[in-house]
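Researcher: Please predict.
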Amino acid sequence: VFGKDITLLLILNNLSSDHKTVKVDMSASTILYTRRAVAEILKATTSVDLGSKQEKHIRLKIPYSYYGKYLTTDKRIQVTALCGVMNMPGLKLLVEKTIILEDTNIIIKIPRRVVVNKAVTLEISYANPLPEPVNRCVLLVTLMNQQVKIHLARLAPKERSKIYFEFTPRRTGPLQLQVDFSCDKFSHAKGFVTIAVARA
């Protein structure tokens, strides 16, 4: 989840009966959806002794403070581990993992029944998932081909707040509501909901 530390586990398994020493070069970078690297956020090297048929785990932690300011709107991090067996130069294994961080900070609540030409109130709650305060918060609400920009107060670390939004649907059928939340520390956290508008 965006705003939280990421914990990964690399599992090394020696399938042979010979003792092996494995050198592991680990790195993590923020990337675009095209897989192009934006910034390297972590680099670590370790070596692991593996006995006959032995399995060992390497825990890797990427704190929010490492990735927060380098993350793009794609919210992707690529982690690689290059594993080489000592004294066997040709034996290398590359392990890759792409992590897509989840946004959990927008919740849209709609009444059970929405009727055409009758005013309806929605509850939009939004949160700061970060361990630090955020400023210059803006909600962009898109509905019925119209956009409303709402400037919000500063949010403390991990704070959740809500606003109420009233509108009157002018036709029956499905309506798409989109909410886009941005501030000075992150942008484009999105929430969607489809509203079914019934006849009166």
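Model: DSSP finds one helix and 14 strands in the chain.
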